Amino acid sequence: VIGPEDFVRLSALAFRLDVSDRQAFMTEGEPAEHFFTMTQGVAKLFKLMPDGRRQITGFARPGDFIGLAAGVSGYASTAEAVGAVRLCRFNRSQLRLLLDDFPQMEEAILAAASSELAAAQAQMMVLGRKTSRERLATFLLSWRGSESQETATMPLPITRQDIADYLGLTIETVSRCFTGLRHAGLIALPAPGEVTLLEPTQLAAVAEGAAICPAD
Amino acid sequence: VIGPEDFVRLSALAFRLDVSDRQAFMTEGEPAEHFFTMTQGVAKLFKLMPDGRRQITGFARPGDFIGLAAGVSGYASTAEAVGAVRLCRFNRSQLRLLLDDFPQMEEAILAAASSELAAAQAQMMVLGRKTSRERLATFLLSWRGSESQETATMPLPITRQDIADYLGLTIETVSRCFTGLRHAGLIALPAPGEVTLLEPTQLAAVAEGAAICPAD
DNA sequence: CGCCCCGTTGAAGATGATCAAATCTTGTGG
DNA sequence: CCACAAGATTTGATCATCTTCAACGGGGCG
Lengths: 216, 216
Description:
The structure is a homodimer. By secondary structure, chain A is α+β, with helices and mostly antiparallel strands. Chain A contains seven helices and eleven strands. In chain A, strands 1, 2, 3, 4, 5 and 8 form a six-stranded antiparallel beta sheet that branches. A three-stranded antiparallel beta sheet of chain A has the order 9-11-10. In chain A, strands 6-7 form a two-stranded antiparallel ribbon. In chain A, β10 and β11 form a beta hairpin. The first copy, chain A, starts with a helix and ends in a 9-residue tail after the last helix. Chains A and B meet through β4, β6 and α3 of A and β4, β6 and α3 of B.
């Protein structure tokens, strides 16, 4: 929706940022002065409790906005690079300016906020009401959905710990659910950092609450 | 931020809606043609699974927007009146028109979306990582925060079932946590449908993970 | 008065957490 | 190229929290 000549003017307002693996570029609670758009890589967003408990609130990939979630107490989450990340940074104070120049941007941001809200509510259902296996099935499907090419085998460049902190589980439970789904023939784990969804339909059924008879 | 003469023009675009107790006025999965602003009462938003499991994704009160959360599959949640509710309905298709006429509205909507996103992420932490007691403490404090007058004793016009479905617990666990907090001297339950926060500071400590020694 | 719904409390059970250890992967240095 | 160390993953055994099942008390409304 944004043409090439727009892109030049847009570039004037954007600050390009390269972030290396495991580096945080946005911190929970800090004044929300900027927001970001991912151009390359994957980032994870999370919140921490004083005692170290962690909840990953989402993952961001190219095209996603980061930093829309903010209240009086600043950014709602910390954002950290998963591998090398490239992004654009905008000033919130210039948001008005930006929106006046790029009316399309307004729609894009609102649409992004809407679908992020919808995703957040879906995640509430996951965290509040789904079993561990349902959670993992839901996660794998949504991860595929956000992959550009929706093939059966996809990269999964995050650790079990990250998945656990996203799903409100422990790494052990996540691992057990992986093996459970594998034994049920719904997925395969060809290599570390990769998953194959063998039976997406059945997986979707599991994600929505259907029981699986074998190896249940 | 919206003046009286603006209000008249705004009224032309808004459709006033009265909803009675337990009536749904927005349904999960339906095309997101409208969005709403609450003017009176309380509404609850929730998602359902095929087998009946329910997750309340939020509560709305006067001034809140409803229906911002929407994706390709329509509204993210169902909205239902808790008691009598009065609201304004806008067409999403006229959103552009609306925003052109009321630039302040734009800021308001973006700010609302931002803080809703922040609240959603906070709720993810609640659902994914907090214990039952921490969840209830968090809920009581946030409920007070959204009450107009922040007195110690406040109305709580929702059932235990609603609280349970909001916190990802069962009514029994919610009830037990109420009793636990009462015995710990942090809250009082003067009458059905009312709570008194006796020790907001300690309650906040509990919500953030501090243990309580007596009656723990 | 009696019914129904809501809330509370008790006891047993299940899911996921915790603790522990073995295996595999990855990266590093000899 | 191989040995080794550090971290990630898997699996097993036990434990705790929350759920489930059950029963009881109270208030509102017909």
